[in-house]
């Protein structure tokens, strides 16, 4: 991907530096018996969420570690492939802002993936779900989530070999630990990019509203597709609005369509989530909107890299930013029809199913009673 501007000088990422990477991989192979015991026999009371892939359960190992266990529903070829991809990718990566692999189980008829449990659930649960009423995410936490998520993507794009494109960046795939540190999750759609390859053409998967136009329309996937999705996520953090909302007249509107006239009039304060009650940093607000506007440019080559995004969000200056304006993406009627007729059992395809499905709005981790979820262990990513 080519970028038309630079940030914080021209130094390159040194792959030999730590850059937030955490130690050696510590995942292992679990037995089905171990996971059965940890989840109390995959008890319904332990269920955190459910989707087309199967179910996720909370569990506690014999040594006291709290885990989340994704139990695949059926082993068709698609599920087998996504299981293999996720285990492969998670086995390669280790970063404080990426949800780590604790292990997996691959028996004759069972496929299970084991993660660390995140006590504060997903970003989606705080922005749109049951936790949104409690307004636990103040402006400072939102900026922490924005920067941490960006750093996790930077690691995938530039600091791991081969580079990785996530392909499904969205609020339900950003989980929050006990300190509201974000961890990007769910690598079932991830693509490993061979050295020297700038983009690939592939079957479109993901959630409508977050999909870059070149990917949604032509299946062209590159690191800049993740950048676009991240830009939508950033707008969601600022505004508290969904990527696509249905108006009273039934017409669907993207978040960029809603923001475009407000930004044109420079009424930036009108963009902020009303739940914050005016408590935000105006300088940070304008800078964050600027970053988001760059990320959601229609043309991939005009979007920044994740390194540039991290730099700007941390207060760095970027060259050639141009005027602060945002571009509206209007998906074609055919894509909107696919969104409207989405089958929840096949939510791996282009869909906006997260927006209205109670079982999936909490991402990998569901709406289990919080008093049952005590954070009794030290997360591997804490320093």
Automatic annotation (TrEMBL):
Pfam families membership:
Pkinase
Q: Which SUPFAM superfamilies match?
A: Protein kinase-like (PK-like)
Task: State a single Gene Ontology molecular function.
Answer: ATP binding
Q: Does the keyword Transferase apply?
A: yes
Q: What does the UniProt keyword field contain?
A: ATP-binding, Kinase, Nucleotide-binding, Serine/threonine-protein kinase, Transferase
Residue span, Protein kinase domain: 42-321
- The entry marks the following residues as binding ATP, namely 71
Matching PROSITE patterns, A to Z? PROTEIN_KINASE_ATP, PROTEIN_KINASE_DOM, PROTEIN_KINASE_ST
Family, as annotated: Belongs to the protein kinase superfamily.
Q: What is this protein called?
A: PTI1-like tyrosine-protein kinase
The source organism is Capsicum annuum (Capsicum pepper)
């Amino acid at each position: 991907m080519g970028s038309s501007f630079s940030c914080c000088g021209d130094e390159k990422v040194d792959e030999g530096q730590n850059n937030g990477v955490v130690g050696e991989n510590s995942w292992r192979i679990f037995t089905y018996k171990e996971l059965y015991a940890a989840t109390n026999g995959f008890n319904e009371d332990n269920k955190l969420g459910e989707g087309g892939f199967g179910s996720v359960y909370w569990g506690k190992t014999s040594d006291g570690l709290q885990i989340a266990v994704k139990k695949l529903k059926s082993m068709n070829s698609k599920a087998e492939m996504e299981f293999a991809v996720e285990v492969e990718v998670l086995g390669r990566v280790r970063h404080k802002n990426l949800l780590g692999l604790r292990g997996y189980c691959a028996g004759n008829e069972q496929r299970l993936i084991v993660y660390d449990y995140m006590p504060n659930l997903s970003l989606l649960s705080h922005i749109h779900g049951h936790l949104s009423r409690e307004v636990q995410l103040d402006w400072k936490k939102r900026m922490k989530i924005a920067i941490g998520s960006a750093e996790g993507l930077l690691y995938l794009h530039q600091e791991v070999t081969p580079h990785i494109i996530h392909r499904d960046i969205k609020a339900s795939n950003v989980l929050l630990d006990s300190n509201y540190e974000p961890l990007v999750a769910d690598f079932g759609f991830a693509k490993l990019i061979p050295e020297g390859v700038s983009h690939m053409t592939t079957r479109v998967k993901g959630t409508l509203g977050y999909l870059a136009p070149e990917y949604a329309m032509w299946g062209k996937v590159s690191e800049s597709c993740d950048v676009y999705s991240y830009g939508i996520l950033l707008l969601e953090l600022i505004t508290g609005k969904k990527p696509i909302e249905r108006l009273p007249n039934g017409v669907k509107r993207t978040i960029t369509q809603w923001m475009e006239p407000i930004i044109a009039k420079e009424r930036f304060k009108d963009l902020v989530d009303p739940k914050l009650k005016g408590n935000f940093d105006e300088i940070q607000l304008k800078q964050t909107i600027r970053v988001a506007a760059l990320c959601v440019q229609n043309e991939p080559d005009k979007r920044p890299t994740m390194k540039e995004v991290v730099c700007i969000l941390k207060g760095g200056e970027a060259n050639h930013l141009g005027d602060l304006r945002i571009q509206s993406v209007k998906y074609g009627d055919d894509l909107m029809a696919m969104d409207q007729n989405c089958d929840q059992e096949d939510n791996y395809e282009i869909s906006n199913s997260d927006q209205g499905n109670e079982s999936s709005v909490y991402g990998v981790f569901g709406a289990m009673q919080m008093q049952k979820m005590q954070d009794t262990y030290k997360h591997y990513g804490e320093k």
